[in-house]
Amino acid sequence: MNDYTLIGLAPRPTLLARPARLRQRLLLAGLLCAGLAAQAQSARLGDILTLARSSDAQYAAARATADSAHEKLPQALAGLRPNINLTHNHKNNDDNSSAYSGSVNYEASSTVLSLNQPLYRPVNTANKQQAEFQVQLADQQLALAEQELLLRVARGYFDVLQAQDDLAAASAQKDALVQQLAQAKRSYEVGTVPVTDFNEAQSRHDLAVAQEIASRNDLEGKKNVLEKSLARPLPTLAKLGAQASTELLSTEQQRTLMQSAAHTALQVAIAHSALRVAQRELAKRDAAHWPTLDLVLATRNDTGVNATPFGSSQTRQSSIGVELAVPLYQGGAISSRVREALAEQQRAEQELSNAQRQAELDARQALLGVQSGSALTQALRQALSSSETQLRSTQRGLQVGVRTRVDVLNAELQLYATRKDLAAARYRTLVSALQLKAAAGALQETDVRGMDALLTE
User: Fold this and answer.
1) Which CATH superfamily is domain 45-80+121-290+327-456 in?
2) Cα distances (angstroms) measured from residue 25 to each of 20, 30, 38, 138
3) Which of 267, 335, 325 is nearest to 296 (CA)?
4) Which one of 84, 96, 108, 353 is separated from 61 by 20 to 30 angstroms, measured CA to CA?
5) Could you state, in order of their start, the residue ranges of all structural domains in the chain?
6) Taking the model in full, what pTM does it have?
7) pLDDT tens readout for residues 25-37
8) Which has the minimum average pLDDT: 25-34, 122-131, 195-204, 263-272?
9) Quick one: 315 exposed, middle or buried, by C-beta within 10 A (0-12, 13-18, 19+)?
10) Mean pLDDT over all residues of the chain?
């Protein structure tokens, strides 16, 4: 019995046990710090894109559609390859015919091995050519889905940042108006200002509260849109650096992308492939008028047990030859299908023309967004500098008695609004540059991931 037992306490750990427990505690503390650091680190645009690529249901559906379309080519090639079949049957027969006295019971079996090799089938040939274009079309549609994913994630990312800026500006405006309302209330209570000044301050405060609520709801809505692609809660996002340049494209690059959009846009390439598919469909329908020629090989083995009064019988037949089939008249169905395919081809031609025009329009709109966003950014940077100067001047004017607190408040509100507008113009310029590349079919994943260099924690 030791002293700890006498006083009802457990013995302390020995000196040998302390280092082990200390190491455990240090390890747990290190893991906790690492986890907190990982949580504190803001996610950049590239991180969000990685999550979306693995979780976005719309993009996953496009990949599955492409995989499905790739199977059309093996199916079409099967129409040009041999068709081999083996059939076997076994029967128990009861023959009551007059050929024999009484009835005869016997077993019979038959085995047939057949091979059919198409020699001339223009429908199958056209079907194979059509399948090649359908695979090409599927790859282009998947590339378009990936491009849309890049745009959707980038736009959603900057929409969230803009909504955060809007909320920050609304909160700052509300805080400034809270101070004005408190001052107006004190001044009204002591009789230095009329009730109209107090009512005006109350009205501006209430409007600021409503704007903050609306901005908060808008932020949650923008987060929900981006979370839809991630299928998980949105992490903290890295912000756009205050001094980061939004000039992603030179003037020459802008002009080149604009001029090439009608020929290089993915939508145009898809329309071209769809037209080729329609043309091969027309050829396939028209080929149904033509005869077909097949190589036919067959082997048949028939066996009968007790099939005759003399015992069993066995017959073996083999044949090889060609089979010619000539369609003469099918009630006008083939001609009707040809006319239907011709109309579909004309529709595809018009859709190609529309895709080219739409690509030009999208490129012009995106180019306008880049140019106007760049000009607006420069103008708002100058306006921000002027607003900051005005606020400092108004504050000095308040100190010497030539400006009122309302003047200072108005200068602060103008500064908040200018900052918000500047941030929105910068986001618009970046997204418009991506849209211009997408309109010309030149948007790559590296373009989006390259924007990480513009972001800060």
Assistant:
1) Outer membrane efflux proteins (OEP) (1.20.1600.10)
2) 9, 9, 20, 56
3) 325
4) 353
5) 45-80+121-290+327-456
6) 0.81
7) 444 344 334 443 4
8) 25-34
9) exposed
10) 87
